[in-house]
Amino acid sequence: MTAAPALGGSADSPELQAEIVAAVRTFVDKDVIPVASELEHADEFPTALVETMKEMGLFGTTIPQKYGGLGLGLDTYALIQMELARGWATLPGIMNGSFIAATMIRLHGTDEQRRRLLPRLASAEIRAAFSMSEPHAGSDVQSIRTTAVRDGEDYVLDGQKMWVTNAWRAGLIAVLAKTDPSADPSHLGMTGFLVEKEPDGDDSPGLRIPMPPLRKLGYKGVETTEVVFDGFRTPASSVLGGETGVGQGFKYFMSGIEVGRVNVAARGAGLARAALDDAVRYAREREAFGKPIAEHQAVQLMIAKMATRAEAARLLVLQAAEAKARGERADLEAGMAKYFATEAAQENALDCMRVHGGYGYSLEYRPERYYRDAPLLLIGEGSNEIQQLIIARRLFERDGA
After folding, report:
1. Partner of 16 at 20 to 30 A CA spacing, among 26, 65, 158, 260?
2. pLDDT, tens only, 249-287
3. How far is it, in rounded angstroms, from Cα 155 to Cα 162?
4. What is the value of pTM for the model shown?
C-alpha cells in the first residue's frame, strides 16, 4: 500500500470557490426550497434533487480529479454543505456517508480500493453508508459486538448495526467490526470493512436491512435503518487498507468521524442561517401594533442573537475544515465547530418559531421543520456532550505539553 494522499488543501481560488458556492446557492433557491417541506412531510426520498447533485459533481467534491472528482478543498466542501442545509438539512445527510467512506478510502485504502471505488463514489454510481453504532454502543465505540472471523479467503460478519443512514440505497457500507474480541484495549482488535451490495436492496446472503426504515422526528426523506449481519461473507480484500488494515479500524473510523463532524457542523451552520433568513423576512412583513415587528426591540434583540450565532457557526466550521485540510490534528476545532454550530441551529430554530408566532407552529411555514431537524445534529457524529469532553481534554493536553 502506498502512502496515503493528503486530505485536500484549502487552496481553491476565491474566484473558483465563489463560483461553485453560487451555483449551489442558485440550485438551493430554485430547486430545493420550493419542494423541501412537501418532500419532508411525505418522508419522500428526493430523487430529482439527488440526480441534479450528481450532475453537478457534488458527491465527488473532495475526491481527486484523477479519480473523477472535483478535487476541491475541505473548506469549499463545507460551504457547499452549508448551502444545501440552508435548503434542507437532509441533503448533506444523503452525501455524508459517501464523503466519509471516500475520505477513509483516500487516506487508508489500498491502491486497488482507491482505483476501483473512488470513481464510482465520485460519480455517485454508488453511494455509501457509514456503519459503526450498535443498539447498545453509540459514543462508546469500543463496546461494539459485531465480529468478523477469518475463514479462508473471506471474513464472516455477525452482528447488528443501528442508525445507518443510506443503508438500503447504498452500494457500499463501511462497517466497523471486531476481528480480535480479546484485544486489550478493545480498539486494537477492530477492523474496517468495505462491504459491497446491490443498491436498493439486501439480497446478499447473510445481510438483512429491515424495511420500512426507522421512524424519526425529523431528518426525513432519507432512510435510517438497522443492518443485520448473520454469517455474511465478505472477501479479505474488502478490509479497509488490506492486510495492514487489520486491527486499524478504530483509528480509521475515528478519522472518518472527524471529517463527518465537519459535515454535521456545516449542516448546523446552514440550518441556523435558514432560520435567521426566514425570521428576518417574516419580521419585515408581519405587522403588529401599527408597524412591522422588525421595528420592535424584542424582535430585534432576538434577530441579533440569531445572526451572531449563524455567523460564528460559519466561521468555526471553516476554521475546522481548513485545519483538517492542512493535515493537522483537528479534533479540537472539529469538536468546537460541531458543538457550537449544532447548538446554534437548535436555538435559531426555536427563535425562528417564536418570531413567527402561531404560524411558526404551522406546517405551512418552515420553522417547524427546522425545529424537528435540529435535534439530530446535537446527537449525530458524537453527541455534544462528547464534543465538550473532547474540547476540554484537548485543551488540557495542549496547554500541558
Report:
1. 260
2. 999 999 999 899 999 999 999 999 999 999 999 999 999
3. 21
4. 0.93
Domains of the chain: 14-126 (1.10.540.10), 129-250 (2.40.110.10), 251-400 (1.20.140.10)
Confirm if 377 and 383 have CB atoms less than 8 A apart.
no
Distance CA 349, CA 343 (A): 10
Q: Which residues are catalytic?
A: 381
Q: Report which of 277, 273, 258, 269 is spatially closest to residue 317, judged by C-alpha positions.
A: 269
Q: What is the pLDDT of residues 69-115, one digit of tens each?
A: 999 999 999 999 999 999 999 999 999 999 999 999 999 999 999 99
Cα separation of 67 and 62, whole Å?
A: 10
